[in-house]
Records
---
Amino acid sequence: MKHQFKYRIIYRDTDAEGVVYYANYLALFERGRSELLRDMGISLTKLKEEQNIVFAINRVECDYKAPAQYDDEILVTTEIERLSKARIIFKQEILREGKILVSAVITACALSLKDLRPKRLPPKLLKNVSIK
Amino acid sequence: MKHQFKYRIIYRDTDAEGVVYYANYLALFERGRSELLRDMGISLTKLKEEQNIVFAINRVECDYKAPAQYDDEILVTTEIERLSKARIIFKQEILREGKILVSAVITACALSLKDLRPKRLPPKLLKNVSIK
Amino acid sequence: MKHQFKYRIIYRDTDAEGVVYYANYLALFERGRSELLRDMGISLTKLKEEQNIVFAINRVECDYKAPAQYDDEILVTTEIERLSKARIIFKQEILREGKILVSAVITACALSLKDLRPKRLPPKLLKNVSIK
Amino acid sequence: MKHQFKYRIIYRDTDAEGVVYYANYLALFERGRSELLRDMGISLTKLKEEQNIVFAINRVECDYKAPAQYDDEILVTTEIERLSKARIIFKQEILREGKILVSAVITACALSLKDLRPKRLPPKLLKNVSIK
């Protein structure tokens, strides 16, 4: 299962070098993860309200191969690379005309809101994705 | 009473036109307001925890006269222009070498966390600033 | 002529009060203005490359009536309220379920890249919008 | 050689979970890198103007161990872990009261502005830091 959305770069995303600022791709990746989970029937809002579970980002590995620029139309792709008991490892990319500009592996951990300790992933997730 | 702090523009503040992105000055202004209140003995964190009061921004009027650029050292100034029962009207400016680049009037309203309705300003504030 | 787009709030837009940070609406408004102009046949990229014209924001007036929260689906509307020789005055709003949350009047000025002085608006704009 | 600066978290840095948004630490890290280089006598502005060299971020590895919250005073530390011909590998951390919250390894590559190809690091850098 792979989520993708198109996005057009605005000034807010860019910096004085004329390219997208390195931290701003992470905001696009947040949207991708959130929409992929929604497609799988998982609402982060409900997960929090009903099960007291939130996701926190544990680790980001991000390779910047080429820059996106103002007005570029890019594609943001998101898929689940791997699941463990409490973690989701996402593989996410930014592409422009089929070329990978940015490639990231981002690990999110399910936490209980009560004690902020790792918590087993929601069954809906486990059902949809086979643990490798 | 006037608060001011120096700040050096980094890439994160700028956009592809080579200047500071118009929304990013507002983050600098947030710091100015927060530090001015701290200088007056008002901690927003304590105000929330002890008195259930938060401030929300009601209105921003911002005039952009000239742009700040990457690596510029700017001065951010903040003063209270006026108080009403539940509102603080801040006058804030961005200057570079004495020249005003951005000038703003920003209104914050004290709200009760219980019902999110306007609430009388904390006495410490009223004591320190004469209501015009 | 009015442009509107739907947008779902992500964490990146919000702050620790649980609502959208006041400066972040301005990034949504940028997208609105840029897309409205595109709908009118005006590409900011081409305008810059072919005619050496850029738009700079001169003034923001923004009223915050009620906050948008994480996961809210909002509508961002943009229309041109008024044109002068070198300026476009945009009227922009954020709505949730028909209710106006934020309302702004944002003035952009056309500048020549050569001397950064105000420049007459491109004919395409003037043709499409009657000057009041 | 190690650079460090204190920073107090403002709302702009946080998100609706009440903690600093994961991408926003990267902006703090940018400041750290830029100030460390300045301390070594390297101005990114001069490097660009005089030698046509810019730095681009190639890779970010970032581990989030514990979150910083609104009003926290944190320490941002930056040191150069390793240099290669065209690359600087920075080790950067966010600490609160001596505890590491975030730890990152960030690789910047020197590029020629003419062809955007990797370019030998400026001698000042190589002189100040022994290549391991």
Note: Chain D touches chain C at residues 11-12, 14-19, 21, 23, 69-70 (CB under 8 Å).
---
Amino acid sequence: MTQVAIVTFDGFNELDSFGASTIINRCRKSGLDAWITTPTPTVTSMNGVQITGQRTMDFIAKADVVLIGSGVKTRDVVADDQILSMLTLSPSRQLIGAQCSGSLVLARLGLLGDMPVCTDVVTRPFVEACDVKVLDKPFHAVGSIATAGGCLASQYLAAWVILRTLGEEAVRSAFHYVAPVGEEDTTVAHVLDVIQSSTW
Amino acid sequence: MTQVAIVTFDGFNELDSFGASTIINRCRKSGLDAWITTPTPTVTSMNGVQITGQRTMDFIAKADVVLIGSGVKTRDVVADDQILSMLTLSPSRQLIGAQCSGSLVLARLGLLGDMPVCTDVVTRPFVEACDVKVLDKPFHAVGSIATAGGCLASQYLAAWVILRTLGEEAVRSAFHYVAPVGEEDTTVAHVLDVIQSSTW
């Protein structure tokens, strides 16, 4: 099984972490396993929902894919050397994605080089302060690193992970299922267009 | 504050419950408060994520809006008279919505009359067995009852709740924020078109 860590911090945005994990787990039978990965046994969302982590931070180094979720406390995360030291990411071996303020984590870890990123409007100035260019786009991927901006763009991160690990037919199948009824074909076409036109 | 119960059972689909609750809670400052409401202190999602409920089932009778989430155990829910007895819904006083297999709960409670519904492909035959017509659409609302089909249609339920309680400008504002970056205007227009063309 291809192991996917959905890194989820205290104050997390539920749409961001679950938007990716639920869609990726539609491919469990095809070999993808996504797990909510947390620095503490439980974390509480920005709207007060407490969840129990499924994997500890050790899992990140073993995972094949790591997606950094977003939330209202990411600026605390990037100021916390202990948490940052647990984020042992390896772009040469792993697919790495970040959602909204998760891009600030990748910037702070120095993983972006001269790659521009997508993020949300609130996080944008903090990412730019790291000398990283922010795009007016929902999704951008270069090599093994992808970023997405806007809560509902978490579906693009999920699609990118599925495309890179299982291929286009698996993307079509997963999105045909999760799409609004009657909007299956337009959803599949749009998602594939966004990620394929923004992958370098 | 307008109180919204997001009824969430064991085996729940994360996209369905959180797709609605996170977007509705974007309107907290405008007066909408959504809470994950569960029959047991904790419930575990279809992908094994344990969450702690924010409200007990007593909250349903007091809420202004009740959305029934979806999951892989809804057929157990509708066979459990004890759980059904906790679902004290009042269409004359409350807005009531159901996501995917949540429509089966409304059918079993006899709340639908001759109203057709939206649901997912797996649930469809079970809803039809209750003599309820299923539409090939993502969203349908009649009066105070709305149903949605397909995980990502949970955003339409959220939009309907915001439209009915706060009005169109609040829908525009919430979806402008949660939309993928660069897709704000098309997302807002599409969401409003879907719910306004399917509300009777």
Note: Chain A touches chain B through 46 residues (CB under 8 Å).
---
Amino acid sequence: MILGAGIAGMTTALEMTRLGYSCTILEAQTSAGGRVRTIRSGDVVDEIDSMQTCQFDVDDDLYFNAGPSRIAQHHEFLLGYCRDFGVELETFTNDNRGAWLHSPNAFGGQPQVARRLIADTRGGIAELLSTAISQNALDGELTATDKANILAMLQQYGDLDINNNYAATPRAGFPGQENVGSRQRGELLSPRQLQQIVTDFFWEFRLSFSQGFDQQPTMLQPVGGMDRVARAFEAQVVNNIVYQAVVTEIRKTENGARVVYADRFGTPTTMDADYCVVTIPAPVLATIANNFSAAHQAEVAGFQYSSAVRIAFQSPRFWEQDHNIYGGISWTDQDITQIWYPNYGFHRTNGIIIGAYIFDGPSGAAFTGLGPQQRIDTTLAQASNVHAQMTGLAMHGISIAWSKVPFQMGGWGTSDASVLLAADDNIFFAGEHLSLLQGWQEGAIQSAYFAIDGVVDRDVNASLLG
Amino acid sequence: MILGAGIAGMTTALEMTRLGYSCTILEAQTSAGGRVRTIRSGDVVDEIDSMQTCQFDVDDDLYFNAGPSRIAQHHEFLLGYCRDFGVELETFTNDNRGAWLHSPNAFGGQPQVARRLIADTRGGIAELLSTAISQNALDGELTATDKANILAMLQQYGDLDINNNYAATPRAGFPGQENVGSRQRGELLSPRQLQQIVTDFFWEFRLSFSQGFDQQPTMLQPVGGMDRVARAFEAQVVNNIVYQAVVTEIRKTENGARVVYADRFGTPTTMDADYCVVTIPAPVLATIANNFSAAHQAEVAGFQYSSAVRIAFQSPRFWEQDHNIYGGISWTDQDITQIWYPNYGFHRTNGIIIGAYIFDGPSGAAFTGLGPQQRIDTTLAQASNVHAQMTGLAMHGISIAWSKVPFQMGGWGTSDASVLLAADDNIFFAGEHLSLLQGWQEGAIQSAYFAIDGVVDRDVNASLLG
């Protein structure tokens, strides 16, 4: 018995079936995938206190990945399934040097092209370190040979001049690059001193974000929407899924587990099994009657989830047409945090632009507290400080605040898992929140593998004892 | 009269036609595009002393961009034409942190995953600079506030620990990442000291390559092959093109220009025009009889071109299957220099892998000197030091040494243009070699615009005088 037909639950069903087990997945909703959701024209975003219907034009390109949106190239298990199931992939860009960084408090509120900040930061660091080395300040650490080698490397690292000064570099772009492309190559932008750069917010993870192991290039996305992954998994296990089965009770029993759920007609139904793998997100699980151990109950009750919010719009592709921005992410220190440009369908008339992606924290909580129209209004007001065109061009806004989505009630787990990694008698737990890769589909798969290993070990031991 | 139906010539014809001029392009070959070539099953690569026929399987995915292969997102003119002509684009990856760096002389010849070198380099730089700052070595340059700000920034820049030491970081990946994906998250790789790292060749532009203005993300490529660009331009001006017209003579005349060419039957044919725009590559132009000024002739004769060589193979996608490498470039300091993985068609059975891409220099000259089979053998021998699977899996090798390709005789211009930027009477010159963007299609377009401006100015002045 598997509770929840997200990636963790479907992986469990798929692999345990392959191992010869008979599996049933109870899924509360009418389709599988959990938070792996792609919103298209006519789709409904249901929250506990609102309902939105997606008004995008009907078009294969016009979709909004409301949940997971990218796959690291070393997420080998997920990618293995994509290969096996024929889910077509394309490149996803995190680090677009033509995208922008923005703060109302820096550079007079003018967005800065990422390449300039990055080039100036590299150049400034290389110049300062070269100065220290040349002044023999690091002779305690470095031999004469080390010094010569490192100085040579730094010259290229920062594109320093022959005197190891960071003067000006084409890496930073050319004047007017905010608005146009390759026309102006004559004049270089003046470099900005590191001392100045670091007084802005910009370096705060925005300049290191794509250095992270799970965010480095190459990143990938399914062609046509992330729910292609969910649909592909679902096709494998569709006969194992009982849809619209809302679990109301989970009990350890003497030799297994018993679950009570309301079936699609609302009729209370009981199901027994030797083992139960619970992949229900902790905030939902915490509301379901159970007889778990006190320690398991306590960890479920206290498990924190991100208050992730995303808001998408349909818009003519002004970012490509006016600014030569092809995919990637712009960052702002306003609440909306990120603006995502589509990494596909370049040059088509319209695209889906994500006007706000808030991971968590006070901004996430604040946006979660707003109604759909307020979220859109606030997002447009803030996003238009970055791209003035958002006002007027961006339309059909639709938002999702994961902490208010029924049967999810959170973005992804952020607590350290401990008790839930061990089974409670014959009840096992899985889900991205119980993995080292919280918030990633790869984590959901790994947690499923961990639970399967647990069930199989238990089962083998039980057989041996029997 | 326009000589050469490459991107420069076709841009000239297209835009001058729009301005009301009547244009004819003389093109030596049977199709347009010049060096914008994509090789597919059955295509012939003709060099002055060899001929190869592409043996790839017949498949839309199995193509080899033999010339230009990427478009910077700020190459606005080329991208504008792509938009207007409906050339579909997708993302091209230069900087894949999962690709490899290799030297027979470093790390015992074992390829190193780029992410590790990059993380260790950033970490080492950040640590050294932090040390210098903490030891007050840069107090001449930095205030106390600067120091605090920069130290905080560096901690994140290099992922330093709380004591500003570069200890170990997930950014570098995990043990076993050369071969597998996300399984092992427990143990971090030991960091390597900057002193050691810089003794390898790796930093020599390989770690800075994608920092360059024209190589930064986002890079783009046409879906289906770069010749989609050539075909799209050709469709615009096809009625202006005389194919298989091999120019043998170019003369300034009293009121214009006269060209003699061998038509497709080999018959010498004379054509007169008010203006002539010559886009023929300099090494070819140098062999054509003309009455240019001595200065123009001298610059043509001395114009240097790169000896670019590319060699492609069809292969099962072992780089994805075995190593989780999705697109991008691996680097080696062997002659072959680069290995390119396809940025599209992920997970399909076969792909086209570029086993060698040599820009220029002694390696380029050496490979140009080899025959097709020798090039393949040498490439496989060297590439298998990086990927052992190349021996056995890579097949249907096909090479192009641009310095030996009739009507091109070089990769791209590398001399500084000077005299040729000015017309010689009514003869104007264009082509990538006469632009600030040598080797780029965008440069060819810009040089065409420059020539068009010259013609129009001359024409307006002539009218005023007349």
Note: The CA atoms of residues 160 and 392 of chain A lie 43 Å apart.
---
Amino acid sequence: MRALVLSSAEAPLSVQEFPDPVPREGEVVVDLAAGALNYRDVWITKGKYPGIHFPVVPGSDGAGWLNGKPVLLNPSLQWGDNPAAQGKSYHILGLPTTGTFAERIAIPAENVFDIPAHLTMEQAAAIPLGGLTAYRALFSRANLQPGERVLISGIGGGVALFVFQFARAAGAEVYVTSSSAEKIARAVDMGAKGGANYREEGWSGRLKAEAGGFDVIIDSAAGPGFPDLMSLLLPAGRIVLYGGTRGPIPNLNPQQLFWRQLNILGSTMGHSGEFADMIAFIDRHRIEPAVDSVFPLTNGQAAFDRMANGLQFGKIVLQIDN
Amino acid sequence: MRALVLSSAEAPLSVQEFPDPVPREGEVVVDLAAGALNYRDVWITKGKYPGIHFPVVPGSDGAGWLNGKPVLLNPSLQWGDNPAAQGKSYHILGLPTTGTFAERIAIPAENVFDIPAHLTMEQAAAIPLGGLTAYRALFSRANLQPGERVLISGIGGGVALFVFQFARAAGAEVYVTSSSAEKIARAVDMGAKGGANYREEGWSGRLKAEAGGFDVIIDSAAGPGFPDLMSLLLPAGRIVLYGGTRGPIPNLNPQQLFWRQLNILGSTMGHSGEFADMIAFIDRHRIEPAVDSVFPLTNGQAAFDRMANGLQFGKIVLQIDN
């Protein structure tokens, strides 16, 4: 088959011949029609992922055909029995196993789900990893209630936009942050009540005055800005952290945490029950994922460059001729 | 009436005449027989509490008599309607209002509870603030389940010892930390499965090897040692913070937090439903609070000195001749 292959950490991605997948017991082979990028894929191309080996086909998000039916793939493999945390065998589709940026993939049958009828292949491919991460963070972890006020940091990223759409569909009031005025404006066009540019001095105080504090904050940055987010929480507020792109949190105030009964909740990915619930939620609310752009697989490197530069608003999709 | 009075931040505490309490609507006057110290009282004597005025009678913990019945007092005043967090009117008995280290106190009738039959006045007086804080932290916040493994830092403190006794009564396996080998040994005598001295290099690795990690950690130190505690949590583990005696947390690792689905939960005091449940739990399990020592009210300064020096194992009680 043809696949988007990373031959080494230095080489650009290119479409090459790659061995066809051989399904193991319980697995099926899906003909892929589209994939989508995650930061995880960019890190893989930098050779930074633990356990990486070359050549490798990246890609955790995929949609395609199985027995003539349109399907999308749950990238969570071997979560285990405990809904509260993944077990030791847990891994994500795309590494160490062969990923979705290829014509075909072998995957456990239980990871294959029907695509909601209102979605195109490209939209469906945009969902899996980001939608699952957002769903668990917002519902299983933050336990969002209708009417609550939610702040989403770094709007424009794939997960952040799913959180945004899910929170709006669940009846929350949603605010956003970004370093880009344009991305904030786009979020407001999509129904955000307001937003703040976290590069501007005093942004958190102004946002607090405007919005009055938040029940729920969903963040993937951590880093030195985290205490600003904490200060925006209402008493008993929940902040869910699903990433750490800006590094360690350098100074956490315990008084604020205990006196205001705050909750800092780590979250990553999700289990198969959450994946099924997420797809049903998207179906019920007729949510169309925010697709930033669509590239042909042969131009995969350009898609990766766009993501590495942080230019996207929504998911970057790869079209796979099949 | 006679009361233990702090005339200024510099003066030692002394028993003096103080105006008799005048009950407002909904309040009753309780004849106090015993009080108990909390760190809060020590901070008050340092003049460091916001809103302090002199002269002041400290004391949040008290037990005594109302209409011939032995009673103890819930020190949580005006929590509000939200069980998840106290409202803006919330305050703790003892400041700004007159505290329990006196012959009499005026308090809302709803804050007066019957003393379980197996307890002395001195034991009952040891319960309120510490028992309430421990109960909320361990059950409402950490949601402790039977058979779980619990680590309690700083054993010897009043709250820590209530957490210890409650966790054991609820069927947990309990480990402790302290900077004192003697306090660890006492906890093991009381049923702790093990303990570690957090002043010793490499303590957390050894404790992890011994115990295998913890479902729940209850801490009031925060500070530079917090990441060591985090590393001892099992996946999906909960760490409840109810104080910050060692200051800000300088370096929190977001990867550890999200990948391991961890929970950092702030907790302080508790509402009246939790107080009632806590007293019922103590009654049901025939728990006798750990009383470190009993001082007469006239020797109150010595009791405060003992607490300020961190020598105690359990609650320091004041006996009030009445």
Note: Chain A has two domains: 2-127+289-319, 132-266.
